[in-house]
Amino acid sequence: MNTNTAHLDLAEFDDLVGRGEIDTVICAAPDPYGRLVGKRLTVQAFRSLGLNGEGINASSFVFAVDLEMN
């Protein structure tokens, strides 16, 4: 088992999902102001897009504008 609680390997992730402890995955990154922006995905969507698919898309708009949307 991974002793670093900040990271999960795939086996640990599968175990937690199987026990019902994870039902949503948050895929996020900080914008230039430090706010997390991203998506909430069901486990099924995360597996389909993130692990087995073409990846998870994010809008570049939130990284290109300031707080006043300029």
From TrEMBL:
Q: What is this protein called?
A: Glutamine synthetase
Organism of origin: [Mycobacterium] manitobense
- Which lineage? Bacteria, Bacillati, Actinomycetota, Actinomycetes, Mycobacteriales
